[in-house]
Write the structure tokens for this entry.
Amino acid sequence: MTTALYLLIAALAFFVIGYILAKTGGNSGERYLVETPVDPVTADDGSCEDEAILAAEKETKDAEEAEVQRIQEAAAQEEIAIKEKEVAKEKEEATAKAQAQAEERAQKEREAKAAADSKEKEKSASEQKGKAAVSATEAEMQASTAIAPEGLLDAPRDGKKDNLTRIKGVGIKIDEALNSIGIWHFDQIADWTEENMVWADRELAFPGRAQRDDWVGQAKLLAKGKETAFSKRVDKGEVASSKKA
């Protein structure tokens, strides 16, 4: 009897457990329906709220990603701006350096030119001084060798003077100057010596004119009544310097 009782009790236990399990599984759906009410208007069982949450979360995430992208782009723009500033600064420094170098070269060129000009002026002054010394020496030598010619006259012979402008190199003013020192005729000039010409140069203040134009040679021909190519032009009135105003 004990064994049979045990079997009966076990069978009863299995029955009770099976019943309980059956009741529990069947009521879970009912409890869900009871615990999760359905909106009678929208027939929403709560899934719409989940979608709104998900949408809000997505929007927040998109906004965060957009903000991150904006920050990254701003950082990139700032980096570009910094690089552009650095490039501009380097360019400005290079330009300033080039200008400074150009100014330095120009300053050196000005200094070199000033030094060259100063040296040239000193050289020119030295040459002028040398020429002046030579001229002074020559003048002294000429003065020491100047001899007045013989036969100087206070007035022309027989009151009639020769036209000394027929000699090349003698214009109206020199003609008058010759008369003022006692020279009125061709034969007076024809007899001049080197010392006489030095004297005439000093008196007339036309150094070298008598030698350069060969007054003596021309005067010798004219004193003999002969003509020269120049005297012919004077006689024709073709030489302006031989005409009286």
Summary: Residues 157-242 form one domain. Residues 47-145 form the longest helix (99 residues). Residues 26-36 have pLDDT under 50 and may be disordered. Helices lie at 2-35, 47-145, 172-180, 186-190, 194-204, 209-212, 215-223, 229-235.
